[in-house]
Each structure stands twice: as structure tokens, then as C-alpha cells.
Amino acid sequence: MFKRNLGASFAAFGLVAALSSPVLAPSASATTAPSDVQAGNYKIETTHTQVAFSLLHFGFTNYSGLFSGATGMLSLDPAHPTNDKLNVAIPVASVQTTSDKLTDELKGADWFDTAKYPNATFVSTKVVPNGKGKATVTGDFTLHGVTKPIVLHVSYIGAGINPLDKAYTVGFHATGIIKRSDFGVKAYVPMVGDDVTLSIAGAFEKQG
Fold it and tell me: Which CATH number goes with the domain that contains 81?
């Protein structure tokens, strides 16, 4: 379930580090300017990275779900953002909805067929800065065995030392729209929407 735009460089690939512990001080709401973020190689912080999706359900409501367990690497160079690279894998069987029956159905052959296609992947191919802390990231998105280019619109959230694990962390938020039928996920189209809106919160921890 997606639409054509998984969005703007995962190097600007938005995945917010949403930490709710009362231990967090104001300094944890990273105030580092985008240009001052530390360059280097970053690993996805899996537990605070989420991919949410939403689509129209029979014309009545926008129904949402969530993927988790993302892994991957980000090569970040704030001085030269067009050089940023992102490579992400998402276990499709991590899908969750508010209906256990639907969640199980989505894993089946009529939808994601997770036994045959266990991972969705995104590999960035182009990053275009769009002003302070924003970028458009184009990349190759693979879902259900089909690979197509998509675009993500990424916004920088913040960077700094995570007060819990002491790791230098940078966070982004990304949005995009994909058409799920483009990837062979066609069940109930058009009664259940073909266009899928993505909202991605991504946290990345610096390596080395």
C-alpha cells in the first residue's frame, strides 16, 4: 500500500527520533543548525524509526497502518547534501493495523505476500536541497518484487547526543505518495484507495 513518492533522500529521509522519557531535557530537542550536523556514516536507529501509511477506505475514512523494524545506512555530508546516500530495508511482515484480522490478511498472497517478498527497500539516487533543512530525495523503491522510482519530501528535525544511549543522533521526517497498484498490490482497487500516503519518522545514529 503506497503511492508514487516514497520521498526525498533518506539522507534527508525523514524518520523522527521521538523520545518520550521524562529524562529528556530541552537540549534533547536538538537545536543544531542543519549545516552544523556532523558528517559521516549513520545507522538507522530501528526502535525509533517508523513508516506509517494511510489510504482511503471505501470512500468513508482514511485508514492507517504502520511498518517497523527498518534497518540501513545513511551517508551524510551537510556541506555537500547532493552527495548524501541512503539505503533502507523494511520487513513487510512488521505491518500493523488496529484489526488483527486485517493485519494477517495484508501479509497474505492477495496483498504483500510477505512469504515471497519479505522486504521493501529504498535506495536513494538523487538528493536536491530545497532550502534550509529540506530536500527532495529520489530513489529506487522495491515492494512486492517490483522496483520503481519514487520521491520523498524530507525535513530535518534535529541532531545531538541522545541522553539515553549517548549516541550522536540525527532525525528527519519524510512524506510521499505512492500508487500501490504500480507495485502489483491491487486488491480491492478502486474501492480501497490506490494512492497511499506515507509519513516516515527516521532516527539515525552516527557510527565511529
Answer: 2.40.128.110
Report how far apart, in Å, the C-alpha atoms of 170 and of each of 91, 167, 197 are: 22, 10, 24
Q: How far apart are CA 66 and CA 50, in angstroms?
A: 7
Give strand ranges (E) for the chain: 40-44, 50-57, 61-67, 71-76, 85-91, 119-129, 134-143, 146-161, 168-179, 195-206
Q: Which domain holds residue 108?
A: 26-206
Query: For residues 61 and 56, what is the distance between their CA atoms, to the nearest angstrom?
Result: 6
pLDDT exceeds cutoff 80 at 31: no
Tell me the per-residue pLDDT of 99-113, one tens digit each, with 9 for 90 and over: 999 999 999 999 999
**pTM to 2 decimal places:** 0.83
In a domain, 117, yes or no: yes
Query: Mean of the pLDDT values across residues 21-28?
Result: 39
Report yes or no on 70 lying in a domain. Answer: yes
Task: Find the angle CA(199)-CA(203)-CA(204) to the nearest 5 degrees.
Answer: 135
> Does 4 fall in a domain?
no
Buried b (16+ CB within 10 A) or exposed e, 34-70: beebeeeebebbeebbbbbbbbbeeeeeebbbebbbb
Residue 11 covered by a domain: no
- From 71-75, 126-130, 131-135, the region with the lowest mean pLDDT: 131-135
Q: What's the rounded Cα separation, in Å, for the pair 189 and 195? A: 10
Number of folded domains in the chain? 1
Q: Is the pLDDT of residue 23 over 80?
A: no
